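Question thread 4412

I'm putting together a teaching handout and wanted feedback from people who do this every day. The idea is simple: show students a protein as raw sequence, then show them the structure tokens that encode its fold, then repeat with a second protein so they can compare. Below is the first pair exactly as I plan to print it.
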Amino acid sequence: MKLPSAMTLCFLCIAASWCAAMAQPPPPSVKIEVTVDNSAVIANTGVGLFSGNFDWHLNKEEPPAWVNSSINIMKIDDPKTIYLASQMSPGHLRIGGSEGDVMIYDIGKHLPCKPGFCLSMDRWHQIVQFSQETKLQLVFGLNCMYGRANKSAKWDKTNSDAFLQYTAQQKLPVYGFEVCNEKEHDVNADVMADSYHDVHDMLTKYWPQASSRPKLIGPDENPDSSFLEEFLPMVADIIDIVTLHIYTGYGLDKDLAGKITTGAYLDKYQHTLNPLVKIISEKVPKAEAWIGETAAAWHSGQMNTTNTFLSGFWYLVSMFEHLLVN
């Protein structure tokens, strides 16, 4: 007699187990009623909560997924790009990032541009047009390092002044201008505050009507409570929106995929955010607070981790934390 193979016996065992399970009556269902108490408002958030950012990174700086994504070269007249970006309306479109403090505006006399970091006025018109077509409110980061020799040196504002004057004369709609990007360790707090007052004076000069004047926004800083506590009182009477950058992890961390859904990883966001929001509310109570940049990991994230379902847990938790603090 030929004996059945081990594989056949395995299949027979699985089939028998399945049949036995199917023969069992289903467990009794339990009816659960959930009542939502909507009598009290926990927090409010603006319609622009979901917004996006374009930066100036060169292709050689980027992982493959982000090649040709610099706002200086990407095809922003592509109907698909316009359609996709418009789905964030009525949010904000921020143009900024690390290279924002390298960009030079090609108007009037200015220092030599580094390759890839010169903004022509034709391109500036195209960017503004893109924001109009997508119905996104444009936020633009000014180069606060132009002509600055060291962290205590005064800012050379001439290039930004010419750029802002041109923007006002051309009646180009801009929601707000940011000053500096993550320069809390490169520029002293009092020196950065002087730059903010310079920009405030320019905005007031070129947009005399407060109702049409772009907002003054910043400092786009990584979490640094001591810097905020020193900087904010010096700009409390002029700043409209205070922006923070919060990243939970690092894109080059080889263990990121294993960490990203853990409770310890997800709790980091709350522990970072809440103390900073408290400082902002105490030092500049009239200003709005924004998260200008955020992600589960900096350094453009990590392929097959932050661009997959895995990152969804971090996303939901971080959005919830934002809502709780308005």
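The second pair follows. I'd like the answer to focus on this one:
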Amino acid sequence: MEHGDSKVNLTPPMQSPAPRVLIVAVGICALIAVVSVIIAAVALSRPSTPNITVNGGNTETSSGGGMYYSPSSTGSGGRIWSISIGHDWGLYEYINTTGYLAGFSHDLIDAVCKAAGANCYTIWDPYTNCMDSEAGQHTHGGQGLLDRWYDACWGWEQTVTRVQIVSFSKPFIKSDPSYFWYKKGMTFNENDVSNKKIGFLDGWAQDEKCLARLTAITGSMSITVVHALTPTDLNDKIQNGQVDAAFASEPAMTGFTDVLTRSSTVRLCSIGGNGMMTRKDSTFNAMWNIGFDKIVSNGKFKELCQAAGTKHGSDSRGYIVGCVDT
């Protein structure tokens, strides 16, 4: 049988491009990783917060919530303390003509934190996020304070209810006198509030529970309770007839004395003066008390109190801060 010649292909097979693509991809990934490391290193070498100028010329370090009390990091081991403040409390806390927060509260925070060698900054937040209440309900801790949005709230009174929820520093402001406030030209019997509509500020010491404890006043159990978020809101409710009167502190309503009449009898809703308010597990008050004691001893506290009326006072905010006697 005749066999034909066998044909053998001696040309080498074409090499697959897959390994080359893989090598190129690995190289690109490695280059991206190196660039990322370099960028991260540069970012970490820069300051984490910018320097800004606020409040009429103070050079401040913004840290998100925006204030400026940072003399050194040695006094508190580099810890940064955050303090909640508001904007609607006479010459203690207000918004100035340039739109920035100002008031005696900022002066005191600055002095105490510097004396304690602590890094502090302030955060504006509604008062109700420090301590809150709802009509007919018991006062309770605010979400901001209890959920650790900040370490402390500035200038809160000690009350029977609050001391069971939070802790306080040494007081630096005397207990606020409380009064009924009603529309000028109207009459109001401050000793009998039976069936009246009474306004209260959400979360403040002068609540319906305090009014119920004032046994010299009759009819407190028959009132209609109306809450307002701010003193301005409360005054509006008085002026438009939503309430017959408000029960509130003098500092809260000082700005409305041109349209409101104040009752004559002083009432007290607190068991101690105003101080820093913190969670019960916080060490903030220990730091604060050290700094506060220092500025009391060196006379700085008295100096701030005496200057507050000139620096922050106005007809709408009042001219007196009720500093504790030292």
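Top answer:
Good format. For the second protein you could add a caption like this: The helical segments are 18-44, 104-116, 143-146, 208-213, 231-239, 250-253, 284-297, 300-312. The first strand starts at residue 51 and ends at 54.
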